[in-house]
Each structure stands twice: as structure tokens, then as C-alpha cells.
Amino acid sequence: MTHIPRDKGFDSTLALIRDPYRFVQKRCRRYGTDLFETRLLLRRTICMTGPDAARLFYDQDRFIRRSAMPERIRRTLLGRGGVQGLDDEAHRHRKRMFMSLMTPERIGGLGSLTAQWLHDFVQRWALKERVVLYDELQEILTWSVCAWSGVPLRAAEASQWTRDLTLMFDAAGAVGPRHWRSRLARRRGEAWLAGIVEQVRAGRLEPPKESPLRIVALHRELDGELLSPRIAAVDLLNLLRPTVAVSVFITFMADALHRHPDCRRRLQAGEAGYAELFVQEVRRFYPFFPAVTARVRQDFEWRGYRFGRGIRVMLDLYGTDHDPRSWDAPEEFRPERFRDWNGSPFNFIPQGGGDHHLGHRCAGEWITIELMRVAADFLARHIAYGVPEQDLRIDWSRLPALPRSRFVINKVRSDDR
Ligand code: HEM
User: Are the C-beta atoms of 133 and 406 separated by less than 8 Å?
Assistant: First the structure.
């Protein structure tokens, strides 16, 4: 049996907080392995990186998700009782509900709504001296995902729910008062949506027949029971919150267009297939979701290393997307690399790996790609704007990482090509 290298120091939580995206890969390089062991929040954790580790991590005979997430993430980002913490048949059954929403028509519908809202906001932006793109995108995406899902949103409440949906992902990894604001936002959000679910069930609210709100509100578990209103709210938030979080990727996309004028030119020219390559490279290159966690189901050995039952395992998503064994010059932004990508579900995993239907891979990956495609088209072909002097350095210590200025644009006008 080979010993898993052990990171020095008793607990590495502070090192992880300081550098969440590069923490695992840096240490794996130091030890010359794909894995090492440490303590995170005082719990023994095996950290792993790379495509082979990803293949192992998504083997559900070996890992489970129940109680795998740190409590502070559960109380902010994820909530209790949602699909992420389920295993086996209970998971597959709930996941089917999510995947039933991911038809090309529905995904296209959300894309069209978002395109409309983007165009509406341009009128507003044209009157402003400066526009903070990240902030504006949050509101646009809140409007479009609420309309798409059938969740009623009144104009007077839009900025509050935009703020709360944003706090759930943007402040989940924070420490101190911002973390507490994220927890409060989740409590308010769950209460809001639980109330809406109850109205649907009582017949006081009639969302369209095929709407996500109706499907989640009337979903039945394997035992034939409806979800509790709270858990239905948690899973509705699993649609609303991450859709608003696509604002992070779109902000990075604006950064990529700014740094690589050639990409903008090719998008403007409408070069066939180029938008897809560009979107994929933005998802690979820029930091967003650093890692995912699970627990060992039963003792097993892998490459001579022993994984003991119950130990927490953390898979490095960002590092795997930058692994030089899969990606040539991974620190260069090169959309063309996706022409030759082998399509493996384990080497390009910004939203998790493995199978969407059977495992925990992100249910919203196609929605994310569609919204990014719509945004790329909008930014490159439908508006003109300036990029004033600002601090575009990425803040790597925050979660999610972002350009420090949140990407400011000015002199905005419609410019259809
Ligand atoms: C904004 C970009 C997004 C990123 C970076 C992202 C990332 C992720 C990651 C890393 C996971 C966990 C994978 C795992 O546990 O193995 C996940 C799961 C999930 N995501 Fe996303 N996601 C995004 C957008 C979306 C969207 C737009 C939706 C829905 C509209 C969505 C719905 C979900 C759901 C329901 C799960 C849980 C799946 C399960 O446990 O089976 N995500 N996402």
C-alpha cells in the first residue's frame, strides 16, 4: 500500500481560503501526485486533481454526497434537502425532475427572454456615465429566470430578490458579516418561494402548465408524497440562483472580448461555430466553481492508495481544467483548442463531470452555454461600448473570483450588425 502524501500543518483551511483555485494543484505538483491528504475545517480530507481523479470521483459505487458539504456552504449556497445532497435512487428520481426541464425548447426560451432583457437594458445604459456590467447582469438574469420559471416578480421587489439571489452565491464563501448576509438571503429566499409553492398547491396561483414552478411545486417523491414547501423552495432556488450566477461567466466573457480583439472580430463576422468554441474556452479558462466534495462510501484502494470509509474527498475542478496533461499551454486563452477536444466528461469539468442524468453533474450546463452564447452575440454584435480605465485584475482570493472592477463599460449604444 502507498501512503497518500500528507500536507504539512494540522489544518489547511486558511491556505484554502487564501487561494481557493490553486490550492489543490499547487500541492499535488509539490508532492508529484494527483492527491494528498489534509484537514479542512478540522475534517480529514483527501484532495484530488486531474482527469483520472475526476473519473474516480464520479464513480457512485465509491462515493456518496450525504453530509459531504461543509455546513457553511449548505446554509448559504445550497440549502438543506435539495438534489445536491441526495444519493442513489432518491437522487436519480429528483434529478429526473431537473433534467425534464432541460429540453431544447425550454433552454431556447430562456435564451430569448434573456436576449430581450439585454436589449431593454441598453436604453438605460445609454443614459448612464458608467455601467458596472456584473451588477446589471444580475438583474437581467433575475428578470428572465423568474419569467421563465413562472415565479411572479413585481417591479418593486426585483432589486431585493436580485440582491438576495446574488448573495447566495457571491457571498457564500465569504467570512464575517458578508457570510451572514448570505445566510439571511437564503432564509428569506426559501420563505419567499415556499409561500409561492403553497399558493400553487392551493390553486391561488396558476403558473403555466409546463413551467418549472409548476413542475417543482407538484413533483412527487418516490413515496408518492409532495416535497415539503421548504424543500421545493430549495430546489426552485437551484434553478434561480445559478442562473443569476451565469453573470460571473458573462463578466469574464466581457473581459476576454476586451483582451482578445481577434475573438470579437470573429464573433462579429458570424464565423460558423466560433461562438461555441469561445464560450467553452471562457468556461475552461476563467475561475468560477473551484471544487466539489463527496464522502467515501466503503473502504477501497485506488492505485495502491487506501480510501477509508466516511473520509471527505475534494475534487479540484479549476485545476483539472488547467491540467497540462489534458490541455496544451493551459494558461493561454485559445478557443480553437476546442476543435480538437476529445469530449471526455472528466477533463473539462467547470460544472462537474460524469453523466448529467445519473450523477451530480450540473443540471444547468446547457442553460449556461446558451445564456453565454446569447451574451456573446449581444456584446459583440448588438452594442458598442467603451472600456474605461479600471482595475481588471482578477481577485483570486474571493469566491467566486472576479475582476476587481466588476467590468465597467461606458458610452453604450445599440449597434446592430
Ligand atoms: C453559472 C454557471 C454554473 C456553474 C459554474 C455551475 C456549477 C455547478 C457545479 C460545480 C455543480 C456540482 C457538480 C457536482 O456536485 O459534481 C453543479 C450542480 C448543479 N447545478 Fe450548476 N452551475 C452553473 C449553472 C447552473 C444553472 C444555470 C442551473 C440551473 C438552471 C444549475 C443547476 C444545478 C443543479 C440543479 C445542480 C445539482 C445537480 C445534482 O446534484 O445532481 N447550474 N453546478
Answer: yes
Using most ligand atoms within 8 A of CB, pick from 99, 148, 351 the residue to mutate for ligand 1: 351
* Sign of the C-alpha dihedral computed for residues 28, 31, 36 and 39 taken in this order: negative
Sheet holding 408-414, edge to edge: 131-132, 408-414, 383-386
Distance CA 114, CA 322 (A): 30
Instruction: Read off the C-alpha cell for 378.
Output: 449581444
What is d(CA 113, CA 366) in angstroms, rounded to the nearest whole number? 16
Atom of ligand 1 nearest to the CA of 245: 1
The two beta strands, 408-414 and 131-132, are antiparallel
% residues pLDDT > 70 (the chain): 100
CA 378 and chain centroid, separation: 21
Q: What is the pTM of this model?
A: 0.97
Instruction: Give the E-state strand segments of 226-378 in sequence order.
Output: 291-296, 300-302, 305-307, 312-316
Number of H helices, E strands in the chain: 15, 12
Amino acid 8: pLDDT: 87
Ligand 1: lining residues by beta carbon, under 6 Å: 83-84, 95, 98, 238-239, 242-243, 245-246, 249, 288-289, 292, 317, 350-352, 360-364, 367-368
